[in-house]
Amino acid sequence: MKKKSLKHSLFALLSLTVVIAAAFPSKAAVAKGKITRVDSTSICGWAWNPDDTNDVQQVELHIFQSGKAEPVKYLHVTADEYREDLAVDLKDGWHGFSVKVDWSQFSGNDFKIKAYTVKGDEYYILGDTVDYKKGSSGADKQASKVPEDTSSQTAAQAATPVTGERSLGLFSVCGYCNCEKCGGGSGLTYSGTVPQANHTIAADLSILPLGSKVRIGNVIYTVEDIGSAIQGNIIDVYCDTHEIAVSLGLTKQEVFLVQ
Hints:
By secondary structure, the chain is mostly beta strands. It folds into two domains: 32-133, Immunoglobulin-like; 162-258, RlpA-like domain (Barwin-like endoglucanases). Helices cover 11% and strands 37% of the residues. The protein has three helices and 13 strands; from the N terminus they run αββββαββββββββαβ. It has helices spanning 6-22, 84-89, 242-247, and strands spanning 32-38, 42-48, 57-65, 73-79, 96-100, 110-119, 122-133, 165-176, 200-203, 213-216, 219-225, 234-238, 251-258. The strands form two sheets. The protein has a six-stranded mixed barrel with strand order 8-12-9-11-10-13. Strands 1-2-5 form a three-stranded antiparallel sheet, with no helix packed on it. A hairpin with a 7-residue loop joins strand 3 (57-65) and strand 4. The radius of gyration is 19 Å and the shape is globular.
């Protein structure tokens, strides 16, 4: 179903860049962290690079209103605040962040917040999507169960992996749809099914055969499609519209095989 597009050509270029960069040691690493608190006035969390504690993380928060595909607000904050709990858990307390939010500027009551650390043009997701309802308490709103590869954590303790799942590591994840630009417009996947949002993904069949089920975030997807430029740890998530596909951007996310 999918054809090679400009987006996937960029993927190929990115892959080549990664191979070249691998030949030169670097302290750069995917940051660890998560949102730990959402209340009526602020969003708080932490982010750090365990391989280089001087690598201060730039965090971007995306606030989604329930039922809307695109964020209603983008917030930017530097993770350089001191937190006593991080000093205990990470042995370095200068990796917290907090940012003020005026929830009254948004219509509706139910929201989702995603946190990313930004490195150049790439976004790396921090922890899991957190739900917030106007008027709810300021208790810890970390709602998901995706484990994080962190060490020596107490207040920042990662969740236990769900039974029957196995981590496949980090994948580059973005969106595609059934338009001419993304998928050729045939209407069917490589496996002959009608693609469905929150269900269909395209993957490298040498890594994930057709029919494989994986969890990304809180959604379980099924491999039903392929793409000419999808090679290695790359997954494309099917979306109902091109606008939604574009809004997903390009992120690095941990993928879990559902066994």
